[in-house]
């Protein structure tokens, strides 16, 4: 039987989707406020009965790790020999995370709610997809449960995330099914990003998307703040199966690691991915499983499920190389990806297909340059008539691109033109007299030399 799972579009923008040229060359775009809606997923084949809960097919947790094919196929188990994510914080900006789930207990810290309707700790499921945040968190940092250990740092039963010893910081949003008292999404998103950065997040997971390549100006300073503090933001490219044919914000924001999806054979997924020049890396997005609230499990698909795998890989890198910035972590991920599709970067696979083992263990040269671009520079170039972004409340101690001016220039005193003062004719006559006098003297001297 076919069961339809839905992690539909996180927000739907009321204005027509505007075209963004790319991470560093996009023109400035006016954007109408986004309207909250749940995030997209696509139909999956499933032999499991009964009917799915909230559109997702429930599965047993006893053998669920055998369904996590990416643990072996993408080098996750090999990467655990070097790092497990211990000491690293992943902020999950989503619909709330069930921190009492048996595969997440002890791994979910005190979060927050930015919607105005959720629990203060960010652990209450909200909106049309209240389970979405728990599914995402489990793939990033689930540690399993039960007796004994799996072939890695966790337990034999239940979901194993890519970074099973990382800490989850849940930041709950209300998406879709609008109700009175819910804050506007264009307030929720920037507040969520700022809170995550201020509370020590090393990686920000945004398994969310929209139908617009542009983003509201209200988001600018929050993403610039994350960039300034060296925090990596990872976002979903979206899914054609939910009607998103191209990558939408926040995955189009320069500096954000945009994630596309591939099938079990490593081919760009049609239903469970999208396309766009901002895609940086691709990973598994079909035949996925994850944890549901109340100790449940379900099958799902879409780039919403791929993002936490990349966020988990980033957490492993951060543990092994704690001094790396978000931009340098992104460099390791894209430089070790396996090229696919057209040679070089392309709009389906980005720089290539994720290799978690290589990203963590290989010798990779990193620089200060972000291969994903800079949102701060984009703002300076494309929002010229607005105030410069103020990434932080306190001015950054880093040296800026411009020299500080310490003394104001004295403006020149205004003077009337000569023709308005009546002096112009006098100046002309005096000049003419000087010229005539000079010629006369020269002629007299010349005549005297001839006479001699």
UniProtKB/TrEMBL annotation:
GO terms for molecular function: serine-type endopeptidase activity. Residues 30-59, 103-129, 384-417 are annotated as: Disordered. One of its GO terms (biological process) is proteolysis. The chain crosses the membrane at residues 423-447. Residues 85-352 form the Peptidase S8/S53 domain. InterPro entries: Peptidase_S8/S53_dom (IPR000209), Peptidase_S8/S53_dom_sf (IPR036852), Peptidase_S8_Asp-AS (IPR023827), Peptidase_S8_His-AS (IPR022398), Peptidase_S8_subtilisin-like (IPR050131), Peptidase_S8_subtilisin-rel (IPR015500). Keywords: Hydrolase, Membrane, Protease, Serine protease, Signal, Transmembrane, Transmembrane helix. Residues 1-30 form the signal peptide. It holds the Pfam family Peptidase_S8. The active site is at residues 94, 132, 304. Residues 42-52, 386-398 have a biased composition (Low complexity). It comes from the Bacteria. Belongs to the peptidase S8 family. PANTHER family: CEREVISIN-RELATED (PTHR43806:SF11), PEPTIDASE S8 (PTHR43806). This is Peptidase S8/S53 domain-containing protein. It comes from Kocuria varians (Micrococcus varians).
């Amino acid at each position: 039987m076919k069961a339809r799972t839905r992690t539909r579009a996180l927000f739907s923008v009321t204005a027509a989707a505007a075209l963004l040229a790319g991470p560093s060359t996009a023109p400035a775009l006016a954007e109408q406020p986004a309207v909250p809606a749940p995030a997209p997923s696509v139909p999956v084949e499933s032999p499991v009965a009964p009917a799915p809960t909230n559109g997702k097919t429930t599965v047993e947790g006893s053998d669920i790790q055998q369904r996590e094919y990416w643990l072996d196929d993408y080098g996750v188990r090999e990467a655990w020999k070097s790092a497990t994510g211990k000491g690293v914080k992943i902020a999950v900006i989503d619909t709330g995370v069930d921190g009492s789930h048996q595969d997440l207990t002890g791994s979910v810290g005190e979060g927050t709610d930015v919607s105005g309707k959720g629990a203060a700790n960010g652990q209450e499921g909200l909106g049309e997809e209240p389970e979405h945040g728990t599914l995402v968190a489990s793939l990033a940092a689930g540690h399993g449960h039960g007796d004994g250990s799996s072939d890695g740092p966790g337990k034999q039963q239940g979901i194993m995330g890519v970074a099973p010893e990382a800490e989850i910081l849940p930041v709950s949003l209300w998406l879709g099914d609008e109700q009175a008292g819910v804050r506007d999404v264009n307030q929720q998103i920037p507040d969520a990003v700022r809170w995550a950065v201020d509370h020590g997040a090393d990686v920000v997971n945004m398994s969310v998307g929209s139908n617009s390549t542009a983003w509201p100006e209200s988001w600018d300073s929050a993403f610039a703040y994350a960039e300034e503090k060296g925090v990596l933001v990872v976002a979903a490219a979206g899914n054609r199966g939910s009607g998103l044919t191209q990558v939408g914000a926040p995955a189009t924001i320069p500096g954000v690691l945009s994630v596309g999806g591939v099938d079990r054979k490593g081919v760009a997924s049609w239903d469970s991915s999208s396309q766009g020049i901002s895609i940086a890396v691709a990973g598994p997005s079909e035949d996925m499983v994850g944890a549901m609230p109340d100790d449940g499990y379900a099958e799902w698909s879409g780039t919403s499920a791929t993002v936490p795998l990349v966020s988990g890989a980033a957490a492993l890198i951060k543990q092994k190389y704690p001094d790396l910035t978000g931009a340098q972590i992104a460099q390791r991920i894209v430089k070790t990806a396996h090229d696919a599709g057209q040679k070089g970067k392309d709009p389906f696979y980005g720089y290539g297909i994720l290799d978690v083992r290589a990203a963590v263990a290989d010798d990779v040269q990193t620089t200060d340059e972000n291969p994903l671009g800079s949102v701060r520079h984009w703002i300076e170039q494309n929002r010229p008539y607005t105030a410069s972004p103020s990434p932080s409340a306190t001015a950054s101690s880093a040296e800026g691109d411009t020299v500080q001016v310490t003394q104001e220039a004295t403006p020149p005193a205004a003077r009337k033109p000569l023709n308005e003062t009546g002096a112009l004719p006098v100046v002309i006559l005096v000049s003419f007299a000087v010229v005539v006098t000079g010629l006369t003297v020269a002629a007299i001297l010349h005549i005297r030399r001839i006479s001699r």
